[in-house]
Amino acid sequence: MDVFTFGERLKKVRMYLGLTQEQLANKLTEEEQIKLAHAQNAISRLETGKGGDVGFLMNLLNFYSKFIYIDSLFINDFEIVGKESNTLKSGYIGGIAKAKIEMMKNMLDIHIKEIIDILE
């Protein structure tokens, strides 16, 4: 995996959490005593694959670890939400609920098709 792909994955996580770069920077500066301007710049550089500070990356991954399994960022078939996603932590109810609802919808669609086939 190259730095651009990794950056895109970091951005997907941020967007999934519903945060702008500025909002994420604010959260990181509250927790880690980092300057806001530095945090926003560092987020942008990481997400675009332009590099960044390893210490800041560790702070970012530490924050994201509250919501996702960090090792999932490094697997080939990374996805933030899906039927078989192992990315989200079970404590993150919003993501789990969305994934379960999607699975139930797909199963219901299959059963409805089977009933229609029987009735025809």
Q: Main sheet?
A: none
CATH superfamily, called what? lambda repressor-like DNA-binding domains
Radius of gyration, taken over Cα atoms and rounded to an integer in Å: 18 Å
Return residue spans where pLDDT drops below 50 for at least 5 consecutive residues. none
Helix percentage range = 55-70%
Taken from the alpha-carbon principal axes, the silhouette is elongated
Q: Report the average pLDDT across residues.
A: 80
Structural class: mainly alpha
Per the CATH scheme, the topology name is: 434 Repressor (Amino-terminal Domain)
Beta percentage is under 5%
Quick take:
By secondary structure, the protein is mainly alpha-helical. It has helices at 3-16, 21-32, 36-47, 54-64, 93-119.
Keywords:
434 Repressor (Amino-terminal Domain); single chain; 120 residues; 63% helix; mainly alpha; 5 helices
Description of the structure:
The protein has one domain: 434 Repressor (Amino-terminal Domain). The chain starts with a helix and ends with a helix. The protein has helices at residues 3-16, 21-32, 36-47, 54-64, 93-119. Helices cover 63% and strands 0% of the residues. By secondary structure, it is mainly alpha-helical.
